[in-house]
């Protein structure tokens, strides 16, 4: 029956399953070991990484200039709308599964399946994207130690590379690079060339993080906490060192911040206010991660109280840090010189504190490591929920008897993600991650509005303010960001969703546990 496609899972049943034997069918359930502090650090660990260490430079150089500060504010506000909606759902439905579980309780099984399938783009492709950025910093750091890795083994297949004669670094060949070398009297054809074979460095990072996650969530939390403190120390060091330098040399900031919003070149998105908005869409990737906190709800000690604190707390802290870093970075360095893989390291060199460059690289490596950890933690726990509902084979929900982690899902996702990270370029990975995440945000915002209308009396330890305004604004902003992405990214999204629908109608619908019981048409 068509009505079964939109059958909803009772919120009471969801909570009951999480509290009393809703494990893997063998008596094994996820341990509740995470405190509010763990959740905030988990969120910071997921958010701070690719955005602050990589994307700040390219977004400033190509789109916004010093106005990148405004772009981060715009993107932060947009994420706050979604974050408020996530916080309400996480406190109301405090179990593993994130947007998938929220969709199942509010919009029905088919929508929940679409969300779960779509979230693979966020967590798995997101982890692969970060792994590629991680490999760049690792190779750069090792090069400083005179340890050189052949460029064929830290670049995706087919990527054309050339060795910069000034820095000896291997850089990707682009039209812009060719024009730059030509203007300097350098014939790019005479330089050493290489072609990527497989990003073995990125793939190895994914495998290592997967092993850590299989060992256990508490051990992962300790590892994550250590890394988060390390990279926060590095970020704060950059803010303090760069800020101190600019206070002593205000003329440098005055020169680099003028004009604060460069004039538009005549093309949409290239500087001016359109450039600021385009940069906001690009750096949206920098905020991906706060929603990953909600996937650990079933492992939180006091989820109703701690989940909103973890989600919103990590989002606010990271937004403040992004604004400070982008402002100081564009004050230290002319924005046109920031289209590099390691903009923070370039910025710290301007201060004369070159001894901090290696520290910055170590912090970037640590930061990107923690992002991979949280991304790879999230997807297996969504599979755990989906297998418990019968939408995918039960083996995906199997919990290790000793470590009490969904180890089958973790290993499978880790292997696929490692292959993806090694085989695909960062540009394609990043856009697929963004569009998948934005779609999930749209559905979650709509779900909060729906639940307020249909179940106004439902207990909500945390309530999203100004409903329906906040959910509507969240949906509109996310739709706008999706519309700004490349048309080919949309084609890939549609193709991915069509494959997911085939899987649903050939396997999931037939094996759904909800469809084998009386249909529930409300969350009560």
Give a verbal description of the structure.
The chain has 524 residues and is mostly helical. It has a single domain (2-159, 196-516), classed as Amino acid/polyamine transporter I (Up-down Bundle). It contains 18 helices and 3 strands. The chain has a 3-stranded antiparallel beta sheet with strand order 2-1-3, with no helix packed on it. α4 (68-92) packs parallel to α11, α4 crosses α16 (426-454) and α6 (109-144) packs across α18. The longest helix is centred in the N-terminal third of the chain and has 36 residues, at 109-144. It is globular, with a radius of gyration of 23 Å. The two termini are 21 Å apart. 55% of the residues are buried. The mean pLDDT is 83.
> Strand content of the residues, in percent?
under 5%
Residue ranges: pLDDT <50 for 5 or more in a row? Answer: none
Number of E-type strands: 3
- Write down the overall geometry: globular
Which CATH top level class fits? Mainly Alpha
Count of all domains: 1
- Per CATH, which architecture? Up-down Bundle
**Largest beta-sheet details:** 3 strands, antiparallel
Specify Rg, calculated over alpha carbons. Answer: 23 Å
